[in-house]
């Protein structure tokens, strides 16, 4: 996983560590095992989201190392690189490490 780190203490669920769209897409990827942009749009069931928006967010998740991206014909397929539980554990450990460095171990 990359060194990119997002933390919003006022959010809830995965949105503490990911933006709202990223969190939704990761939940879908963990549930279904893989996503394409078209599948994501179908699962989201929202006509408000543009194809290019979902494509960009999935590409960014791959850049962050949270998903892999493989060419499948004319499209890309995205798969999680870690389980949901591993992701949460890693992020919590990052926050704990940051607090220890900043305030000392207690």
Account of the 3D structure:
It is a single chain. The chain is mainly alpha-helical and 106 residues long. The protein has one domain: Arc Repressor Mutant, subunit A, CATH 1.10.10. Helices cover 51% and strands 11% of the residues. It is built from 4 helices and 2 strands. A two-stranded antiparallel ribbon has the order 1-2. A hairpin with a 2-residue loop joins strand 1 and strand 2 (75-80). Helix 2 (37-44) crosses helix 3. The longest helix has 20 residues, at 84-103. The protein is elongated, with a radius of gyration of 15 Å. The mean pLDDT is 91.
SSE pattern: HHHEEH
CATH architectural arrangement: Orthogonal Bundle
Largest sheet properties:
2 strands, antiparallel
What name is given to the CATH topology?
A: Arc Repressor Mutant, subunit A
Defining traits:
single chain, 106 residues, mainly alpha, Arc Repressor Mutant, subunit A
């Amino acid at each position: 996983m990359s060194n990119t780190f997002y933390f919003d203490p006022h959010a809830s669920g995965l949105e503490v560590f990911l933006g709202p769209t990223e969190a939704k897409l990761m939940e879908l990827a963990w549930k279904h095992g893989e996503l394409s942009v078209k599948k994501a749009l179908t699962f989201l069931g929202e006509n408000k989201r543009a194809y290019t928006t979902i494509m960009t967010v999935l590409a960014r998740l791959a850049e962050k190392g949270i998903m892999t991206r493989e060419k499948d014909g004319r499209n890309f397929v995205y798969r999680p690189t870690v389980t949901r539980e591993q992701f949460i554990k890693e992020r919590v450990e990052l926050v704990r490490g940051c607090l220890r460095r900043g305030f000392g171990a207690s």
